[in-house]
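Go through this one:
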Amino acid sequence: MPVDFLSDEQVARYRRFRPEVSVAELEQFFRLDAKALEALAGKRRPATKLGWAVQWGTVRMLGTFLAEDPLDVPGQVLEFVAEQLGIDPVCAPEYLTRPKTAYEHAWEIRDLLELSEFSKREQEVRDYLAARVWSTIEGPRALFDRAVVHMLREGILLAARGDHHADAADQRGAPGRARPAVSHAGRARRPGAAGTAG
């Protein structure tokens, strides 16, 4: 399916953080609730707790896990989560020492939040869009945004890398695909340091 109709802004924000996250977004998506705190109680290492909690908030905000680098988030996200846990965010890079841990946590969080893989509910998204095409005069860009909102609301993980939307973002040179210039430890140490889009 061609996605050349997407605006540069749509491509840039699909499955990625903006450089700055608002206080309202931090509170809405990264404030740990009772369920999250209960799941975290079984984690021992500070870096493990921090990484898990960052992934939990990321999927709630973006509708996806950052598989390549789950800590590629704006600095204020790390600081906000670390403060809630009473953890020094400088420990964050330790979370990446065993890559399988991040995947195991993603599966655990997916089940905890009762999220569905896009591939399992793709037909539902197609049906939703087909209904909108017939009942509205929205163009392709608006329909794309509606589909993303629908998926977030319904607990459907956004199409992952390798799917046509993510590939289009990569092909169009969207910001955030390059490795961050600032290390995780550097972002964690510098209050207010903006991370790259992820």
